[in-house]
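Glyoxylase-like metal-dependent hydrolase (Beta-lactamase superfamily II) (Nonomuraea jabiensis), 226 aa
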Amino acid sequence: MLIAGFPAGAFQTNCYVVAPAAGEECVIVDPGQDATEGVDELLREHRLKPVAVLLTHGHLDHVWSVAPVCGARDVPAWIHPDDRHLLSDPAAGWSGTSASLFGGLTLSEPDDVRELSDGAVLELAGLELVVDHTPGHTRGSVSFRLPDDQVMFSGDLLFAGSIGRTDLPGGDYATILRSLAAKCLTLPDDTVVLPGHGPQTTIGRERATNPYVKEAAPQSGPTRGI
């Protein structure tokens, strides 16, 4: 398994390329701001041929370069339908002053956009990726899992020591806690988490130390009546 990545642009959004091995087909995850050059460098270094771009959600810092990356390689982009509108209207994912900063930015959908659904299994580039719908950061947030290798691309659902913000349009704190409980806490402790920002971690480490994951954990033991 080959997984390589780099933090892109001012937002330092992690962009990844994933392949069975060097010299084979690959998928690209979350090409953010100014990610095109970094993607090209990884493809040359590892002699990879991309077949798709996978988007964990529609926020600008994760999709900024999706149209040029897809266009240059003639590959489709995959995104959940609840976030698809953000591909062409990035300001809709922000609020207040932040939205005005991006109001003049023009982005467009790639020519080929395909929609993700919860539980779907994508067979791409010799890989089998399971799609988990994980709303809370945005309505259309998803994570991608490589079950055989126990690797999770969590986007902005789960970070090392934290979680994605929930104060932007489409975000909801109670919902992200439910996503953590249903899609993260059910995974083995040694599952490697590759997040949208910051360093990698594991489910076990976050289960033990992340206060938000602890809050999301189902309560055990007897309950008292009211």
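DSSP finds seven helices and 14 strands in the chain. The mean pLDDT is 93. ok done for today
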